[in-house]
Amino acid sequence: MASLRKPLASRYSLDPYLVSKITNMVTRLLATKLYPEFIKIPVSRRRLIETTQAFEELTSLPNMCGAIDGSPIKLHKHNLPGNYKCKYGYPSVLLEVVADHKKIFWDVCVKAPGGTDDATHFRDSLLYNRLTSGDIVWDKVINVRGHHVRPYIVGDWCYPLLSFLLTPFSPNGMGTPAQNLFDGMLMKGRSVVVEAIGLLKGRWKILQDLNVGLNHVPQTIVACCVLHNLCQIAREPEPELWKDPDESGAPPRVLDSEKSFYYFGESLRQALADDLHQRLSSR
Questions:
Q1: C-alpha angle with apex 119: 113 to 123, nearest 5 degrees?
Q2: Which tens digits make up the pLDDT trace of 192-219?
């Protein structure tokens, strides 16, 4: 946006400071007032059923309600502390989003420098706090092989396995046939958030090299996420996707405070994998 200020100021004979002030006002309005209107966790029964059914049509996995991923947003400034340098080598902040089947974000978090790993950023988020405390009530429980399955989100192996966040068994297809089948379907569900981030960066090219003051970075990114949702709701033509490099890395360790969530998630994941394998192999 900074790169636009001088041309705009020159074209309309405006003071660059005024253009900057108006830009900050608009992004703040989008990031605060409009955020709760257009970025909402799917808790209503109607929206929850629509979302989980759409994911089940895509993946054959029941009660999936979203996919999570992180992506570094490159910063134009280079004189930043070392913890802003992401794994791809450039200064950035980390964006975390959860998307639904329509590639609409229902949660957005920008709280960490780019050198932070996805699991740490997630654990520092309000969403994690709300999920671990039971603050989010999803009124849709199904039974799979004796397990009560509540709605859950999916992520790659950079995220912790928890009862409400399921991750693949293996990043390299070394599991059982049932586990490998589950992993393939889970990653198919996760693909919606990868595409959503690709659309976000494709639509709002300022996010490919963000040139604003550091204190305005989070609200600018969140404002772009709100605008992205407006475009998806209005079914605007989708631009060419921006492609982040593929991720790799070891799964995060389980925290003591997460152990009960982890053990339940482990048995839940296996039950879903066995059920999926039995259903699809008997067709």
A1: 85
A2: 999 999 999 999 999 999 988 898 999 9
